[in-house]
Structure formats: structure tokens, C-alpha cells
């Protein structure tokens, strides 16, 4: 039976949910407090990464994180604050960073990722306007130590059926013929893909409008009205909207939105930066991650997008940290000595917040407290990659259908 559904949050997760809900014949409205033009879902690196099957919460990550905290140019930082949300998040993250959690998560993440990639392939059949390409992903490393870690991770991926090549310096240069790559070796994940996030979201909005989905930018939720365990309507700064079902997909703001319903969610923003550079003849052509600096490199038509850093902070902290940005630029110039990238003008540097859960897994679930509320957030560094599958699962949850994959791991805990 067709339902009236309101989605709070018009980032890639909310818009993909709208797409699959509308496809199933539901009447869908998406509200977003911004213009829906430049949030986290727009300036990200555009990588679709079925290779990434290990959650952020894993053994060794805390030790590495503490080391990086003392380096102003490192890719990771936690903004210190005496704040219960941060303390709770850190405690939960610490509890999750173990092998058991990794072992229990891999198959779930892999199934979600592969479903998403299949759905991206379907989108790519409808349009070529968002520059979808399947060139894989190179994890480039410069040191033996990082190489060993990458190879270990890739061997686990191989055991789960993910296609991997192990490359030495010559192997890398056979793929990257235009530029000299200063790396010891690389893991080439052949199943990965990439696209232009800005163009994909433009395409998605056009498809939604064709399906009569209502998109309400500059519309923020003020409150929910519920009776017992059923939400009846939302009050926004533009008026009241009644619906049968409600989806919270408000990215890093999801805890704030859910607190209006008395629903607790441990989730913090992980700020990151990106900037674009015009492609030159000597530019790299394969999407890559520069492992020692965790820098993402995505060639897109006439530009290359570079992205990196993860600063656990709060959503008011929109300041660009130029030291950390300098760390990204140093790594790019070190890995690609011929590129000679300069610090971009301040106004051309983009920043966005990754919604990070302490388990490193997204949340895709029906609320325990409200029978007509779906929570869909916490995709951290993989929101673009996992969005189509998440959207499809949200649509299935709204319709009380059997979900395409087991979602028991994707819970608010
Ligand atoms: C530098 C960087 C690189 C990245 N690279 C990749 C990558 O290569 N691949 C990948 O898969 N992922 C990547 N990511 C992660 C990805 O961008 C995020 O996981 C994803 O964008 C999250 O999408 P979302 O829809 O959950 O959140 P958002 O895009 O943040 O959307 C949430 C929306 O909710 C709205 N909202 C908030 N509060 C309210 C309210 N009260 N009322 C109404 N609306 C509200 C916000 O305005 C926002 O538009 C990267 C992120 C960064 C920062």
C-alpha cells in the first residue's frame, strides 16, 4: 500500500531513500535546512568502495590515532572537549575496536557495498552524466610497514571474494603511464568505481522531480508531534507536514533531530576537506588513496579531486585548518613529484562532515520507540558508496517488506 513519507535530510542518503520509495509508488517529501547544494554529499571524493569491508573501529586504530593527535599535519584529530557526547562516543569506539567486532562486520559491510555497486551500475545505464567509471582503486604505499598492513587487509578482502592485484613500482607505472608515482607498491582493488558526487546528486534530483517527489530546501525541522508510539506530523519553519512514515537521514545532525523525539544516538561529525585541480597531461588517471596520508585522489573528467583528514569535532566547527590541509598537499607532492600542487585559495577549499558512529557501521533500522520512524545515517567515510543500497533498504523497511540483505548489524547501539 502506498504511503506518504517525509524524509528529514536531503543529502545522498535521504535522496537515495526518496528514489527507491518513489519507485515503489510512495508519495515522498524531502526537507533539508540548506539549499541542498554543497553538504557532505557534494564535495566528497566520489569513490564507490566495495573493497572497504573493515569497519573504522578495528584493532590498532586507537594506537595510531593517538600518535596522529600530536602531529598538526596528520590525517586524524579529535578536537578535545569536556563533553558527554564525545566521552560516550570515545568509550563506545574503544569497546568496538576489537577483532571480534571486525569479524562480525565484514560480511555485512560487503553485502551492503556490493548491493550498492549493483544499483550504481543500474543508475549508470540510465545516464552517463555523472561520470561513473570502473577503474578500481589503488592503495598506494611508500613504506614497508604500511605495505604489510595493506597487503594483510587485501588478503582478507580476497578471502571474501574481492578481486585484488598486488603491484610493485613497475606495476603501478604500467597503470599510471602519465606521471611518476613515488610509491613502493600498491594494492589494486579492481571492483571499485568512482563518479562525480555533484553531478550524481544533480541527476538524482532530476529523477526525483520526474517521479513527483517534493524537494523542500531551506526547510528545517522544528519538532515532531506524536501520539503514543506513532509520529503524526512534523513542524518545520515553513509549516506542518503530516505523513504515515518518517525517515531521519540528517547525517551529522541526526542526533540533534532525533533528540526531539527522545531518541539517543551516539554519532559525531568527522570533518574533512577537498579541493579540485585542473587535470594536466601528467596527472594520475586511476583513483587512489595515498595510504601514509589517507589522501583520496579522484580523477574526474577535466579535474582531479583531492580529499582527506578526519577531525572528530562538532557541527559548528566549520573552520578550515590550513596546517592539516598543508599535510594533504605535502603528501600529494610527495607521492606525485611532478604535479607540484600549490595551496588552493581559501574559498575554493570545501569542507564537510562525515557522520561517524562508534561502531564504524551505518545505522539502517526501524526505531524501537516509534513504529513509523526509520533511522538511516552514520555512513562515515562511505556514505556515497553505500547510499543506493541504504535507500533501497529504507524503502523496504517503510513498506514492511523482507529486506534485500540482512541488516541486523546496522543498529543504533
Ligand atoms: C573529504 C571527504 C571525502 C569523502 N569521500 C567519500 C568517498 O569517496 N566515498 C564515500 O562513499 N563517501 C565519502 N565521504 C563520506 C560521505 O560524503 C558521507 O558519508 C555522506 O555524504 C553522508 O551523507 P548523508 O546524506 O548521511 O549526510 P549529509 O550529506 O550531511 O546530509 C544530511 C542532510 O541533512 C540536513 N539536515 C540536518 N539537520 C536538519 C534539520 N534539522 N532539518 C532539515 N534538514 C537537516 C543537512 O542540511 C544535510 O543536507 C567523504 C566525506 C568527506 C568529508
Automatic annotation (TrEMBL):
Oxidoreductase listed as a keyword? yes
In terms of SUPFAM superfamilies, this protein maps to:
FAD-linked reductases, C-terminal domain, FAD/NAD(P)-binding domain
Query: What sequence ranges are listed for the domain FAD dependent oxidoreductase?
Result: 4-397
Q: A GO molecular function for this record?
A: oxidoreductase activity
The UniProt entry's GO CC annotations, sorted and at most eight, read:
cytoplasm
What domain of life does the UniProt record list for this protein's source?
Bacteria
Instruction: Recite the UniProt keywords alphabetically.
Output: Oxidoreductase
The UniProt record lists the keyword Zinc: no
Q: What Pfam families does its record include? A: DAO (PF01266)
**By what name is this protein known?**
D-amino-acid dehydrogenase
| Species this chain originates from | Lutibacter oceani
Amino acid at each position: 500500500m502506498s504511503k506518504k513519507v517525509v524524509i528529514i535530510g536531503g543529502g545522498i542518503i535521504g535522496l537515495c531513500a526518496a528514489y527507491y520509495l518513489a519507485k515503489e509508488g510512495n508519495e515522498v517529501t524531502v526537507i533539508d535546512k540548506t539549499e541542498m547544494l554543497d553538504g557532505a554529499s557534494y564535495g566528497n571524493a566520489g569513490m564507490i568502495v566495495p573493497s572497504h569491508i573493515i569497519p573504522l573501529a578495528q584493532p590498532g586504530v586507537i594506537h595510531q590515532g593517538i600518535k596522529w593527535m600530536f602531529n598538526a599535519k596528520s590525517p586524524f584529530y579529535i578536537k578535545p572537549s569536556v563533553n558527554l557526547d564525545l566521552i560516550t562516543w570515545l568509550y563506545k569506539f574503544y569497546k568496538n575496536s576489537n577483532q571480534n567486532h571486525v569479524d562480525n562486520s565484514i560480511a555485512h559491510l560487503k553485502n551492503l557495498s556490493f548491493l550498492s555497486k549493483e544499483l550504481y551500475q543500474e543508475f549508470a545505464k540510465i545516464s552517463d552524466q555523472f561520470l561513473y567509471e570502473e577503474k578500481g582503486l589503488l592503495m598506494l604505499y611508500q613504506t614497508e610497514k604500511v605495505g604489510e598492513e595493506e597487503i594483510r587487509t587485501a588478503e582478507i578482502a580476497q578471502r571474501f571474494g574481492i578481486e585484488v592485484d598486488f603491484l610493485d613500482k613497475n606495476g603501478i607505472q604500467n597503470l599510471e603511464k602519465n606521471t611518476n608515482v613515488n610509491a613502493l607498491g600498491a594494492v589494486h582493488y579492481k571492483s571499485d568505481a568512482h563518479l562525480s558526487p555533484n553531478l550524481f546528486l544533480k541527476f538524482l534530483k532530476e529523477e526525483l522531480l520526474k517521479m513527483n517527489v517534493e524537494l523542500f530546501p531551506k526547510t528545517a525541522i522544528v519538532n515532531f508531534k506524536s501520539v503514543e508510539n506513532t509520529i503524526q506530523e512534523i513542524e518545520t519553519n515553513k509549516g506542518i507536514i503530516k505523513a504515515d512514515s518518517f525517515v531521519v537521514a540528517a547525517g551529522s545532525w541526526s542526533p540533534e533531530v532525533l533528540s526531539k523525539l527522545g531518541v539517543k544516538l551516539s554519532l559525531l561529525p568527522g570533518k574533512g576537506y577537498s579541493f579540485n585541480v585542473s587535470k594536466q597531461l601528467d596527472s594520475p588517471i586511476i583513483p587512489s588513496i595515498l595510504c601514509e596520508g589517507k589522501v583520496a585522489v579522484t580523477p574526474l573528467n577535466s579535474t582531479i579531486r583531492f580529499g582527506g583528514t578526519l577531525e572528530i569535532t562538532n557541527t559548528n566547527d566549520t573552520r578550515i585548518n590550513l596546517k592539516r590541509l598543508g599535510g594533504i598537499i605535502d603528501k600529494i607532492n610527495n607521492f606525485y613529484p611532478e604535479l607540484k600542487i600549490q595551496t588552493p585559495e581559501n574559498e575554493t577549499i570545501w569542507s564537510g562532515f562525515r557522520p561517524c558512529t562508534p561502531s564504524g557501521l551505518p545505522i539502517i533500522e526501524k526505531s524501537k520507540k516509534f513504529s513509523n520512524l526509520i533511522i538511516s545515517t552514520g555512513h562515515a567515510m562511505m556514505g556515497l558508496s553505500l547510499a543506493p543500497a541504504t535507500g533501497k533498504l529504507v524503502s523496504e523497511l517503510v513498506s514492511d517488506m523482507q529486506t534485500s540483505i540482512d541488516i541486523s548489524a546496522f543498529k543504533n547501539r
